[in-house]
Amino acid sequence: MENWKAVVYLLASGQGILLSLALLPVRKQHPSNTFLGLILLVISLELLNAWGMQVKYHSSPDVFPFWLLQSYLMLPPSVWLFAQMTTYADFVFHRKHLLFYIPAGVDIAVQMGWYLHFRFVGHSIHLLDIKAWFLFAEILPILWMGVVLAVYAQRLLVISGQLKKEAIHVSVIHLVKIYGVFVFLLLLTILWIAAVLMYMRVFSLIELIITLFLFALGYIGYFNPAFFEVPKLLKKKTAGTEPPLFPNYNDQVELERLTHAFEQHSLHMRSKLSLEELAGELNVPSRYVSYLINRYHATNFHSFVNTYRVKEVIRKINDPAQQHKTLLALALESGFNSKSAFNQVFKTHTGQSPSEYLLVKR
């Protein structure tokens, strides 16, 4: 049984590490993924550490001390930045935010120095046996996570109310990511408190939850990469209290023109439609078009256009005059430029693959 558990832990942690490395590179379009990658890296190393204890890897002669790269102090700032970037449309990451990672850097540096001292000099005191260090490396991240999750929860409550009030549509898959990550982190933190502060034997439960989360996230990411393209939901300041970003334009008028351009002139059927081209059609700045889509539709330009393309494909599927055509032909006519892009986007918006949807409809 223990061998099977070790194998599962190794597979899940390996998958989590690979996924985190794929998300870590900074991308201008989806910067929140960098911090999701850091979160996944920390919990993946935690599970890998559990695997090491199962197979007694830590005591092997040629051990690589991977656990030294892990610091619980990396979680709170990463969760906070992930929350900010996925719930505030106007949040901008600055270099000063890197200061939040100084405690994690200190933690990792001290652990490495202590480990080298142990290997080459030897010592009899375990680092966590030092009360001050225990408070810094174990208690501080728990308290910090509690504060961060409280702020995160408050922000999600505000978002829920504003989405309902303003009737803003956000795809289910985006909400699953934002709320799902929060629920996972909340549960993990509660169990973390139970283990460290209440001395409860919940480590097996923590490892099980991390394993299931990493497998689920890896599965979703493999079959639906668009899952990681989360829109920033709402502006940081409430409407009416912030100065308009584009005072020379009437948002409601321009929104109607934007909708008209797609519903009446079918701009989405242009396979290479760009933000700049759309802005040119509307004779407004491209930044303003991006603002309208982000602020009032809670998504980005590409997702907005693809929504219309999916609707167009569905309309054609339901049109008896179009039923002699293949799905790929319908997709290309609707503005998609490849089969893979069509399949991925269609499943993101409908929850079904095009062939599954067609099977049900026909």
Automatic annotation (TrEMBL):
HTH araC/xylS-type domain residues: 256-360
GO molecular function, one term: sequence-specific DNA binding
Ranges that cross the membrane: 6-26, 33-52, 64-86, 98-118, 130-153, 174-199, 205-228
Cited InterPro entries: Homeodomain-like_sf, HTH_AraC, HTH_AraC-typ_CS
Keywords from the named record: DNA-binding, Membrane, Transcription, Transcription regulation, Transmembrane, Transmembrane helix
Keyword Transcription: yes
Keyword Cell inner membrane attached: no
Protein name: AraC family transcriptional regulator
Organism the protein comes from: Rhodocytophaga rosea
